[in-house]
Design a protein that fits this description.
The chain has eight helices and no strands. With 170 residues, the chain is mainly α. Helix 1 crosses helix 6, helix 6 packs across helix 8 and helix 7 packs across helix 8.
Length: 170
């Protein structure tokens, strides 16, 4: 690996930390997720095809590492209801304000796939195409997850549970 590639990866660390913090809502778990992501990236750097942005590739690795961790915790834990959400650690940063804390708590209630799309598009400012590449899903899936995520988040912020309309499938 050249010094240029190393510098590009190091430059992505602040974005990776923000995304990890949004996914986990816990500073220590976020740091672990960034570390695991960077380890995977170093080992697989030869697999990066230089198609698209390195940052999107790294976000894709982070998403996969995070989802693998979620799946592993589900296998270990026997709790499968809202008690698991209530047991999640809340960040201790009082200076961030109540609104940010509430937003973090609400983000954690979203499906991890929807939360990932919201964070990549709104916080990290990836294009739909870059987010689709990072998450390895079609652009249309990104658009629908973003729409559902925004609707659900807005409803929860307004203090009401979102109603998912029943759709007829042929």
């Amino acid at each position: 690996m050249g010094a240029r590639q190393e510098a590009e990866i190091v430059a992505c660390i602040p974005s990776l930390r923000r995304y990890a913090r949004g996914l986990t809502a816990d500073a220590a778990r976020a740091d672990d997720l960034v570390q695991d992501t960077l380890e995977h990236a170093w080992r697989r750097l030869s697999m990066w095809r230089r198609q698209g942005e390195l940052r999107a590739w790294l976000f894709g690795i982070m998403h996969n590492v995070f989802i693998d961790g979620v799946r592993a915790r589900r296998l270990r834990d026997t709790v499968h209801d809202d008690d698991a959400i209530a047991a999640m650690p809340v960040r201790a940063q009082q200076s961030d304000g109540l609104e940010v804390r509430d937003l973090d708590r609400l983000l954690q209630r979203l499906n991890p796939d929807v939360r990932a799309v919201l964070l990549l598009i709104t916080v990290e400012e990836l294009s739909y195409k870059e987010a689709a590449r990072a998450l390895d899903v079609p652009v249309g899936t990104i658009m629908s997850r973003l729409s559902r995520g925004r609707e659900r988040l807005a409803a929860m912020m307004a203090g009401r549970e979102p109603v998912t309309p029943l759709r007829r499938v042929k």
